[in-house]
Amino acid sequence: MANPGTSRMDTDPDDMKERDNEIDKLMNILDIILNERGAENQLKLCNDMNKFIFDIDLSDEVSGFLMTVFTCLRKEENDKPGHLRFMEYTAKVGGVEMSVKSVVEKIRAQNIKINFLICTPIVEIITLFRSFYDEVRTGVTRFKVRDSVAKRGVKRTKDGKMTSITKKQESTQNISQYGLTNQHISLLQGVTLAPERRTGILRSIGPLTQAILLVMEDKFFDKLRSALSNSLQMLPMAAEIITAAPQSTPHARNHAINARK
Q1: Using an 8 Å Cβ cutoff, are 174 and 142 in contact?
Q2: Over the stretch 18-56, which tens digit does the pLDDT of each residue have?
Q3: Residues 6+ apart with CB under 8 A from 158
């Protein structure tokens, strides 16, 4: 899976092979999860798939459980308490109760070792269908911001400038605060996703979503700037747009100044 804006032909063959190997591992984990539902349910699912019947709710439950298992595996090395907590989780998938611990033990038994650097954005993409589906269904006029942004003590005035405030902002914002309307919806893909999910797919969200996040961002500023640069690469004034975007916050402005040096 090449990054958006990059064709498979432009991707290093070794990188492609490594990604394909990691995708195969993820598919093996999905098979383990689906097999936990029992042979009868698995057979019914295969028959439905052969008829091109897709159960969106079941797909969402499977992908959600996959994300939970993946998070559990990722926490094993760096966050033991978190790993143990996730190991105790259970969930109903297609009406069948299953445990994270059981799936993780079977992954270990098959000696499936994941490269998290490669797999994380892939898992983010394949588990976000329901979120994107809900975004299309309910609209993108309001979106969540991280607590660190809400606590920063700034807000936008009607003319688009940032001003300091004494009390905490709301945890959601409206696109109108950025001078945007429903006419811009097609460029705001991913804006309603949970903040922790957006950071994993920065190159797959809309350019205006990237621009909004760039204005607010501290931790992933450089990654966002790179993602927005990739989205706007066809515009001759892309560099000027990206440099202008972060001018509203002191922290972001320092990033922009350092980038020009």
Answers
A1: yes
A2: 899 999 999 999 999 988 988 888 888 887 777 777 778
A3: none
Q: Of 59, 78, 229, which Cα lies nearest the Cα of 131?
A: 59
* H or E element in which residue 124 lies: helix 116-126
Q: What is the pLDDT of residues 123-181, one digit of tens each?
A: 988 888 888 888 888 788 888 877 655 555 555 555 555 565 554 555 788 888 888 88
Q: How far apart are CA 30 and CA 42, in angstroms?
A: 12
Instruction: Report the C-alpha gap between 174 and 99 in whole angstroms.
Output: 38
Alpha-carbon gap, residue 185 to 59, rounded angstroms:
26
According to DSSP, residue 202 is labeled: G
Scan for tokens 């798939």, then name that residue.
49
Q: What is the dihedral of CA 86, 92, 93, 95, to 10 degrees?
A: 170
Q: Give 242-261 pLDDT, tens digit per residue.
A: 777 555 444 444 444 444 44
**Token pair listed for 31:** 């098979």
> Tell me, what DSSP letter sits at residue 168?
P
Residues counted in the chain:
261
Find tokens 């290093």 and name the residue: 12
Q: Torsion angle of alpha carbons 55, 60, 62, 63, nearest 10°?
A: 130
Give the H/E segment covering residue 13. Answer: helix 13-35
> Which residue, among 123, 121, 88, has the nearest Cα to 103 in the 3D structure?
88
What is the chain's alpha carbon radius of gyration, rounded to the nearest angstrom? 21
**DSSP labels, 20-79:** HHHHHHHHHHHHHHHHTT-HHHHHHHHHHHHTT---HHHHHHHHHHHHHHHHHHHHHHH-
Give the pLDDT of residue 245.
58
CB 172 within 8 A of CB 145: yes
